[in-house]
Specification:
two-stranded parallel ribbon, Rossmann fold, alpha/beta, 38% helix, 23% strand
């Protein structure tokens, strides 16, 4: 029952892998480069080298579910947004479905369903996330779509909200996102669900049900 973590070397990905390891949840960290391996080896976390823009299929063998926490990041252009946030997510859903995995847990973004309401420079990103989410919904595989607000580097509170109205603000710490991913990975009864995710006042187990 191993979870493949795509984007494992990212800021959310590393925190999630550490939490999973500490909790005894088996994970395989997908990284792009052997230079990234050491951090994981020091924590006895299994790695596989694969790339959303290249060879990918082998990373899935022996895994039962996937966390997609990859992203092209703010310093690349729409070309990489298209190839990572959209095509990478589509490839992930298709491979997970074809290989019979039990679930895909995808990190999307708050309000991804309204790309035309986003600021001009965010529209390609929001459009990519929106299309990736639509593809996953239509794919023949159980899934959870997690839509965090603006990410911060604050400490984990493990207290969250699932709407802007409830939260009163639009941010969530990467640490809280990692804790929610752990909760999702451990709770297999949660599927074909979507959650907006913000910092808030409710325990994760009460909010993400
Ligand atoms: P991050 O630190 O930039 O991590 C992104 C990860 O994706 C990195 O590990 C990166 O690998 C990996 N990646 C990029 N291209 C790849 C490829 N071709 N193949 C495989 N992996 C690749 O991001 P984060 O802060 O953890 O955020 C993660 C997610 O949250 C993203 O999906 C992002 O869109 C979403 N999100 C962000 C915000 C925000 O406010 N920033 C808000 C809502 C949602 P390397 O380490 O090798 O570079």
């Amino acid at each position: 029952m191993k979870t493949l973590v795509i984007g494992a070397n990212g800021q959310i990905g590393r925190q999630f892998c550490e939490l999973a390891k500490a909790t005894g949840v088996p994970v395989r960290a997908m990284i792009r480069d052997s230079n990234q391996q050491r951090w994981f080896q020091e924590r006895s976390i299994e790695t596989v080298i694969a790339d959303l823009e290249g060879s990918l299929r082998h990373a899935f063998y022996g895994c039962d579910q996937v966390v997609f926490a990859a992203g092209s990041g703010p310093h690349t252009g729409p070309d990489k947004t298209l190839m990572i946030d959209l095509n990478g997510a589509v490839r992930t859903a298709d491979l997970a479905s074809e290989l019979g995995l039990s679930r895909v847990i995808q990190v999307s973004a708050i309000r991804a369903e309204e790309p035309l309401k986003a600021p001009d420079n965010m529209r390609p990103y929001m459009a990519a996330k929106n299309a990736a989410d639509a593809h996953l919904r239509a794919a023949q595989i159980p899934h959870v779509i997690l839509k965090p607000g603006r990410l911060t580097d604050e400490q984990a509170t493990q207290l969250v909200a699932t709407s802007l109205e409830e939260a009163g603000d639009n941010h969530v710490s990467r640490a809280n996102v990692a804790h929610v991913l752990l909760h999702l990975v451990q709770n297999r009864q949660l599927f074909n669900r979507e959650f907006t995710l913000l910092d808030g006042d409710r325990a994760i187990a009460d909010a993400i049900v």
